[in-house]
Write a structure and sequence with these properties.
This protein is mainly alpha-helical. It has one domain (1-66). 90% of the residues lie in helices and 0% in strands. It contains one helix and no strands. It has one helix at 2-65. The chain is rod-shaped. The protein starts with a helix and ends in a 6-residue tail after the last helix. 0% of the residues are buried.
Length: 71
């Protein structure tokens, strides 16, 4: 009886360890996904800033061409 209980406890311990390993893997995967999404947002924000700078430069060039100066 004790041997059967010991085997059962070992099986339960293995199952618990498997669950922990799965949870850790899922947490790592979620963290990687979050990091990738943050990197994508940063790239998009940088592209938007560059586009805004280019639009500002074009607008200033058009104003200058039209003889309008901004101080």
């Amino acid at each position: 009886l004790q041997e059967a209980q010991a085997r059962q406890q070992e099986a339960l311990a293995r199952e618990a360890a498997d669950r922990r390993a799965l949870q850790e893997a899922q947490a790592r995967e979620a963290a990687e996904h979050h990091a990738a999404a943050a990197e994508q947002r940063a790239r998009e924000e940088a592209q938007a800033r560059m586009a805004a700078e280019q639009q500002t430069e074009r607008a200033l060039a058009l104003l200058e061409k039209a003889g309008i100066k901004l101080d």
